[in-house]
Amino acid sequence: MKKFNKEIEEQKEKNGERVPIQVSVYCFRKVENNILFLLLNRTPEYGRFWQGITGAPFQSEDLLDAAKRELHEETNLIADWIKEMSYRYSFPMRPEWDKFYRSDVVEIWEHVFLAHIIDVDRIIVSKEHDEMKWVSLEVGLNMLKWDGNKEALKSCYKYLNPTSEN
Predict the structure, then answer these.
(1) How far is 28 from 34, CA to CA, in rounded Å?
(2) What is the pLDDT along the chain (166 residues), one digit of tens a residue?
(3) Number of domains the chain is built from
(4) Contact at 8 Å (CB) between 22 and 55?
(5) Considering the domain boundaries, does residue 166 fall inside one?
(6) Which residue range forms the structural domain that includes residue 132?
(7) CATH classification of the domain holding 132
């Protein structure tokens, strides 16, 4: 991973210099012949909804390194392997995020990653979340709030099961 000064990067974000890009990491594990995905529930102060692991890269950080860092920061997990999916999507900028971004930012692009997890016993959920669940694709699609997240989860499943109709 590239070296960067986290304190300097965090100060840039406070000054409205956050990059309008996010990573979204969907962790999976296999239990018998079933694929289970990790979903986290945001606390009420962060909006109260289920999602994968998300976060923004620092300005000096590439997307893969950001995905690895966010995975570890939000769950304490380290992936056996992690891969960027071809699926990505954007969502509109919201007024409550104005302090983090330049005034000309109107949308944020989210890049989707798939991470294989073996050591599930090391999970420690961050303060942004208050619950986590390992779920099937079908259950996950019913839990996720945003269409972009649902399509991201489907793209991860399709990568793992190329002959699937989902």
Answers:
(1) 10
(2) 444 445 545 555 555 578 899 999 999 999 998 999 999 999 998 889 999 999 999 888 999 999 999 999 999 999 999 999 999 999 998 888 888 888 899 999 999 999 999 988 889 999 999 999 999 999 999 999 999 999 999 999 999 998 877 6
(3) 1
(4) yes
(5) no
(6) 6-12+19-160
(7) 3.90.79.10
